[in-house]
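Input.
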Amino acid sequence: MRAFDAVGQRLSFTAGAQALNVSQSAVSRHIISLEELLGQKLFDRSGQRLVLTAAGAALLPEVRRSFDLLEQTMNAVSHDPLSGRPIRIHIPPSLLQQVVMPMIRAFHRDYPDVRIDISSSPVTGMPTTETDMAIVFDRPNIDDRITDLLWLVRVAPVCSPAVAAANTGKSLEQFLSDNDLLHVTLDGEVRGLLWSSFARSSGIELNTNRGLAFDTLSLAATYAMQSGGIALADIAMFAPEIAAGKLVVPYDAMVDDGFGYYLKLRADDLDDPTISLFRSWLIAQFAARQAG
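Output.
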């Protein structure tokens, strides 16, 4: 398995052997033995470059994940035999900042012995980093992971009180046309996707190519509060800023844009009682917040 992992990561028998500090022939023998055990070829050796077969491509990430978990657990046990490995969770930045941070604080207070490693990056869908759980911003989809809807996104144009006051009496279409649109970039999507979707749902004409774009919704909302422009924001997520008067919703124009925040994890990870506990706790926290 180590030989397969080393070669599969590098797609080179030579580089894999060097990484393991063994001979290339030794690595080759180990992989041949693994292929004979599985009854499947793991690499296509026919071309100039080594290529994973379908079987190899399916096996490699699971081998990589298993080694990562084993290493983490061994490190944890070596430092504290009574503690397990930390739960690794990825959370989109805006949701983490606006909603989840107080939840994590409450969980840590109630379960101080459970360690959580949090990562965050502005990606749409699953992150590329290996995690135990991930809250993803995405449209509904079906894959091989357990998926729980935590938060259904409902958006409306928001701005500072000064911008709203300066545009009193305008139609929604004119209001949006006369001010900068603040975009949130989405992986693999066109720049104005969210504003175009909003305009279509609202039945208005809108040039969505103009304005500024930000990595996260939090940055776009902060710019709207401090510097002007109009952000298309999740109303529930920014309820505290709206209640405090830092942001206003000048038009009754809320729409479901098809996106939501989903908790995803592998089915076999639910065998871990700590992960199962944290999943149930998170779901309950989101349900309570939405009800509130």
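The chain has a mean pLDDT of 90.
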